[in-house]
Design a protein that fits this description.
single chain, 179 residues, Rna Polymerase Sigma Factor, Chain: A, Arc Repressor Mutant, subunit A, 2 domains, 9 helices
């Protein structure tokens, strides 16, 4: 099923569950890893991804197909992940630096992190980036999204995204060349 067929199938009561099941099969893993790069912690990521797909389920009837289905889902996932981090920051009265330090600790101690020393160092470098640069870098580098798709997801101009990506790459290169 392509995305249009999924949306149409979802709108039909007899095929709604099947269509949503296809949507989950198609996008759940990609969304998990997208959110995981923002939140780092596996358990928190699972919770956020569940919230994402609950929102998708509740709102898919109203999806107008003005954008691609996966960019719509990525936008929901991005917003849910950022909202989760903001709530944690407010609840625990943490600064952005405290959250970055906590995420770095989870990165190195998490049982769900596979990767050699270089991969962990790259993830630590990404954690040092400002939020927008981190999002743009992850979406471009790991998710291989086009700037136009990222623009739809986070609502920033393509030129601004290119500048953010360039700055992120420079900062990551500087971080990796330290030591």
């Amino acid at each position: 099923m392509d995305d249009h067929q999924i949306v149409e199938g979802f709108k039909n009561p007899t095929t709604k569950n099947k269509a949503f099941s296809v949507l989950l099969d198609k996008y759940q893993q990609r969304i998990y890893w997208h959110v995981r790069k923002i939140i780092i912690d596996h358990d928190d990521t699972d919770d956020v991804v569940q919230d994402v797909f609950i929102k998708v389920f509740k709102n898919l009837d109203g999806f107008r197909e003005a954008s691609q289905l996966y960019t719509w889902i990525y936008r929901i996932a991005t917003n849910e992940a950022l909202t989760f981090l903001k709530k944690r920051q407010r609840k625990q009265a943490w600064s952005i630096d405290d959250i970055s330090h906590d995420l770095e600790n989870k990165l190195t101690s998490g049982s769900y992190i596979d990767g050699d020393e270089i991969q962990v160092k790259l993830q630590k470098a990404i954690l040092t980036l400002p939020e927008k640069q981190k999002l743009v870098f992850n979406m471009k580098y790991f998710d291989d999204l086009k700037y136009e798709e990222i623009s739809e997801i986070i609502g920033t101009s393509v030129g601004g995204l290119k500048a953010n990506y360039h700055l992120a790459v420079k900062k990551i290169e500087e971080y990796l060349s330290e030591d």
